[in-house]
């Protein structure tokens, strides 16, 4: 059964065009120029119940606008959508009982009060039965390890602690669909990892549909089964993350610190990105060779002090994908 | 869930706002110092005016009544949170999204938040203003007016909320609303009876004032306190109820129109 159905959904904004200089500003006061900006072109997709979807795209691609239409905050200018059988912008209140949302750069917690007070408020807002609320709250406190700072004012929490509380607060009413807009932004590696695990567990155990936007390749790889890439308001990729990785994550970066300065590195499928003394950054084309093969060949020649393997940033993968298919699709 | 059950959530929002606002009590106290300054200046002005006139009463008000009138109007005015600033910020930062994805009424949420904040600020201002009044002016002769002041103040804050909400909701279209708020405040200061009772105005201005909602905000509560009149009380409370209904409906209408064309920033 589909949790989300989107049919040719579009949103355009009418914005005032700013003219150059002081004279331009005065002219604009008398005769303003408007331009229509298409934030979301005409997109269609379905998300099945229990699916984990990464909704990706560069800044300004239309991701947040789409989330805002699917949560009923924005009214579209074209098309139709259904979330849990409700038209979001027409039945926003009814829908709000079935969805949860976390916006990574915004906080829903009361700044001067401890998280427990926000949880209490949420229980009232969502009209939860007392027993159900207490059981759910305790379950989330245990799962998200919130016990130690449950009674600490939010302003005194670290970003990681706060984000765990934000997600827990969004889950109190057992939403069937969880919208996560950049949930790991600004978090350190360990906290990111923990948050991903928690969301994954939630999806497995409760069958919650996850709709995630992120610029973090790790979020997408470790959390999502399917990815939709949007650019210039249009879908340029919609398939399994595995396939996306195979097709588009063709390069990885190996950063090495060696014991001695290396000689010229000449390996098939490997190119040097940066070399400075004993530090070396290599780009590995995973279609031509594997990371393991590249590393073993380097280890055969040099002693390694430190090594890290990095994925290219999501932005560059998306740009790469757009180069492959977006322009052609957009032209039609 | 019944309507009564649903209203419980708003009572709780009010309670949590009150608790959150307690963190700002020190800030309110500092702001209230401004109240002392205003009252001191007006004390001097009115003393000189009464001496110049050489009468005990001006438009039916004694010097003491005028000063206590000012204590009430200033305590109320300084207690009103800036709704335009709040909603404008919510729209600009995109935080409005959190209000819209919840099963709560946007206007009702802001109302309980506004009233809780105003209640705390009014209490702080009333204590400070009252203390100064007792020290400098002497005890007031409020009588039954003191009992009806909370009711009239509640009505006054509610009228102010509905008018402010109507102005603040224009943020859904224009994003910059503080200009409107500035003009509105200036009307409230003058023709709204914040600086002096409407009876002191020229006849024509008084007539205009009585047709505007502004009188319901601080003039009616302050007059109820300092010049209480049983026979006029029902009419004054009915005036407040009328403007609450009018601007409440306008605010709901503007909200319904605005939310359809809202452009949530950020993200």
UniProtKB/TrEMBL annotation, chain A:
The keyword Transport applies. SUPFAM superfamilies: P-loop containing nucleoside triphosphate hydrolases (SSF52540). InterPro entries: AAA+_ATPase, ABC_transporter-like_ATP-bd, ABC_transporter_ATP-binding, P-loop_NTPase. Gene3D superfamilies: P-loop containing nucleotide triphosphate hydrolases. Keywords: ATP-binding, Nucleotide-binding, Transport. Residues 24-257 form the ABC transporter domain. This is ABC transporter. It comes from Gordoniibacillus kamchatkensis.
TrEMBL record, chain B:
The chain crosses the membrane at residues 21-46, 66-84, 118-137, 144-163, 183-201, 234-255. InterPro entries: ABC-2_transporter-like. Keywords: Membrane, Transmembrane, Transmembrane helix. Signal peptide: none annotated. It comes from the Bacteria. Pfam families: ABC2_membrane_6. The keyword Mitochondrion does not apply. The keyword Transmembrane applies. This is ABC transporter permease. It comes from Gordoniibacillus kamchatkensis.
């Amino acid at each position: 059964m589909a949790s989300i159905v989107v049919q040719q959904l579009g949103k355009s904004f009418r914005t005032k065009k700013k003219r150059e200089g002081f004279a331009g500003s005065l002219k604009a006061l008398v005769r303003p120029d408007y331009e229509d900006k298409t934030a979301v072109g005409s997109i269609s997709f379905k998300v099945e119940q229990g699916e984990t979807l990464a909704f990706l795209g560069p800044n300004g691609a239309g991701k947040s606008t789409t989330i805002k239409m699917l949560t009923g905050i924005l009214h579209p200018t074209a098309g139709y959508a259904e979330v849990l059988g409700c038209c979001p912008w027409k039945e926003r209140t009814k829908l709000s009982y079935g969805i949860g949302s976390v916006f990574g750069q915004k906080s829903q917690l009361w700044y001067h009060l401890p998280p427990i007070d926000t949880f209490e408020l949420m229980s009232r807002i969502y009209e939860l039965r007392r027993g159900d609320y207490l059981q759910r709250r305790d379950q989330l406190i245990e799962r998200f390890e919130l016990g130690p700072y449950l009674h600490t004012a939010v302003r005194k929490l670290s970003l990681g602690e706060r984000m765990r509380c934000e997600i827990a607060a969004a889950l109190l009413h057992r939403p069937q669909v969880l919208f996560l807009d950049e949930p790991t932004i600004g978090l350190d590696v360990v906290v990111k990892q923990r948050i991903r695990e928690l969301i994954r567990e939630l999806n497995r155990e409760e069958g919650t549909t996850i709709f995630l936007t992120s610029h973090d390749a790790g979020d997408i790889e470790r959390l999502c089964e399917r990815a939709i890439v949007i650019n210039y308001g249009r879908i340029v990729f919609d398939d399994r993350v595995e396939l996306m990785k195979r097709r588009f994550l063709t390069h990885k970066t190996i950063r090495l610190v060696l014991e001695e300065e290396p000689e010229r590195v000449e390996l098939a499928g490997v190119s040097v990105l940066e070399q400075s003394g004993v530090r070396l950054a290599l780009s590995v084309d995973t279609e031509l060779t594997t990371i393991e093969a590249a590393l073993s060949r380097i280890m055969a020649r040099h002693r390694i002090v430190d090594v890290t393997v990095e994925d290219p940033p999501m932005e560059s993968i998306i740009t790469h994908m757009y180069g492959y298919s977006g322009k052609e699709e957009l032209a039609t | 869930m019944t309507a009564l059950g649903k209203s419980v959530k708003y009572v709780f929002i009010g309670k949590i706002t009150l608790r959150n606002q307690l963190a700002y009590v020190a800030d309110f106290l500092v702001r209230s110092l401004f109240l002392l300054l205003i009252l001191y200046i007006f004390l001097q002005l009115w003393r000189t005016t009464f001496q110049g006139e050489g009468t005990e009463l001006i438009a039916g008000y004694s010097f003491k009544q005028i000063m206590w009138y000012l204590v009430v109007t200033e305590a109320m005015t300084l207690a009103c949170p800036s709704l335009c600033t709040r909603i404008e910020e919510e729209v600009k930062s995109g935080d409005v999204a959190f209000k819209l994805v919840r099963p709560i009424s946007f206007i009702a949420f802001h109302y309980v938040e506004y009233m809780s904040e105003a209640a705390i600020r009014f209490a702080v201002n009333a204590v400070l203003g009252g203390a100064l009044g007792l020290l400098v002016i002497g005890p007031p002769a409020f009588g039954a007016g003191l009992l009806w002041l909370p009711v009239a103040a509640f009505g006054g804050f509610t009228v102010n909320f509905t008018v402010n909400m109507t102005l603040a909701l224009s943020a859904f279209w224009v994003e910059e609303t503080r200009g409107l708020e500035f003009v509105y405040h200036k009307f409230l200061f003058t023709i709204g009876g914040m600086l002096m009772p409407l009876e002191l105005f020229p006849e024509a201005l008084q007539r205009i004032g009585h047709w505007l909602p502004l009188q319901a905000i601080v003039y009616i509560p302050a007059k109820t306190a300092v010049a209480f009149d049983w026979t006029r009380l029902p009419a004054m409370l009915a005036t407040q109820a009328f403007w609450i209904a009018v601007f409440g409906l306008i605010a709901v209408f503007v909200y319904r129109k605005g939310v359809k064309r809202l452009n949530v920033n950020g993200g």
